[in-house]
Design the sequence.
């Protein structure tokens, strides 16, 4: 289990660039219609989902979700199968 800062530091040992990260389930909107009285097919629900998507990428929110999603890009000139422990 990683916090975002630990994950980002660990990923630096690999020949890749961190393109972005996001926390999943920051607002847990799956229960919006029951807990907040918002219908799942309403404009208000869509707005909350859009807001959550932006919020989940903020550094201060990356540790708040149930998971941290991230995207990496292999740096040019590096071989596939690189083992960070063999560097």
Sequence:
């Amino acid at each position: 289990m990683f916090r975002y800062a630990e994950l980002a530091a660990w990923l630096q040992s690999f020949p890749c660039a961190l393109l972005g990260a996001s926390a999943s389930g920051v607002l847990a909107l799956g229960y919006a219609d029951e807990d907040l009285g918002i219908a799942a097919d309403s404009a208000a629900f869509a707005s909350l989902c859009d807001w959550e998507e932006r919020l989940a990428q903020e550094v201060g929110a990356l540790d708040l979700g149930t998971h941290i999603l991230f995207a990496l890009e292999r740096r040019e000139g590096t071989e596939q199968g690189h083992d960070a422990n063999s560097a």
Summary: The mean pLDDT is 83. The two ends are 24 Å apart (CA to CA). The CA atoms of residues 38 and 44 lie 7 Å apart. The first helix runs from residue 4 to 11.
